[in-house]
Specification:
Layout (H helix, E strand, L loop, with lengths): L2 H9 L6 E5 L5 H8 L3 E6 L2 H10 L4 E4 L14 E5 L8 H11 L6 E6 L4 H6 L6 H16 L3 E15 L2 H11 L4 H6 L1 H11 L1 E3 L2 E15 L2
Parallel strand pairs: 1-2, 1-4, 2-3, 4-5
Antiparallel strand pairs: 5-8, 6-8, 7-8
Helix pairs in contact: 4-6
């Protein structure tokens, strides 16, 4: 199981589907879905992310917006994806409610979130400790299901493995997601090196970090 396979399976057939990519970042997912024929719209609060996404996926549409206040009418999309982004939203419950509003009745919202465990989490922790915000995202999902706002049709955990040539490649990856992390890296370079080398497994071609991901396929109730 991997993220793209799960998304394609959920929205099959993907061709022609109107998909909203919430927290699209630099457009990697949007590009993959647009290449398979989906009509993709991506939103992100970051100006640089939107600029990069538009360059990477010219076949998709992008707008700068907050997940808590989506600039779209109700039932504008056939589904939505929130990929590794809900824990970055200040109010994850509001983001889930907005996702439910903009997808049509019976249309799924796929939420994929990293858990606060695994070697990738251990390597990241001295740079940015996401324990609390990852937990808050999971709590918001659980509360939305318990309240009856969503029906959960799938709940699966799988692991993403990434290999990095060296520490520099890893730091480039984590700062491309969040440039503000550079300050923590500059403040304790040796501690961060030790955390990375202690967490990563040596593999041919570099260092491997593994991150458990939990995916929910949520359908708005009513």
């Amino acid at each position: 199981m991997d993220t793209l396979s799960l998304i394609l399976e959920t929205f099959a057939p993907i061709e022609g589907r109107r998909i909203l990519d919430i927290g699209c970042g630099p457009g990697v997912l949007a590009k993959a879905l647009a290449a398979r024929g989906a009509a993709v719209t991506g939103i992100d609060p970051g100006e640089a992310a939107i600029r990069d996404a538009a360059a990477r996926a010219p076949g998709a549409r992008f707008e700068r917006a907050s997940a808590e206040a989506l600039p779209f009418a109700a039932a504008s999309f056939d589904g939505a994806v929130i990929l590794n982004a809900l824990h970055h939203v200040p109010d994850p419950a509001a983001a889930l409610a907005e996702a439910a509003r903009v997808v049509g009745p019976g249309c799924p919202v796929v939420v994929v979130e990293p858990l606060a465990e695994g070697s990738a989490f251990a390597a990241l922790r001295p740079i940015e400790d996401e324990t609390a915000i990852r937990g808050a995202a999971q709590a918001a999902i659980a509360a939305a299901i318990a309240s009856g706002a969503f029906i959960c049709t799938r709940d699966v955990t799988f692991t993403r493995a990434e290999t990095f040539a060296d520490l520099a490649a890893y730091l480039e990856r984590v700062t491309s997601v969040e440039p503000a992390r550079r300050a923590a890296i500059e403040a304790d370079p040796e501690g961060i090196r030790a955390a990375f080398e202690g967490a990563a497994a040596r593999r041919e071609g570099g260092y491997e970090l593994r991150q458990p991901l939990r995916a929910h396929v949520l359908v708005p109730a009513g």
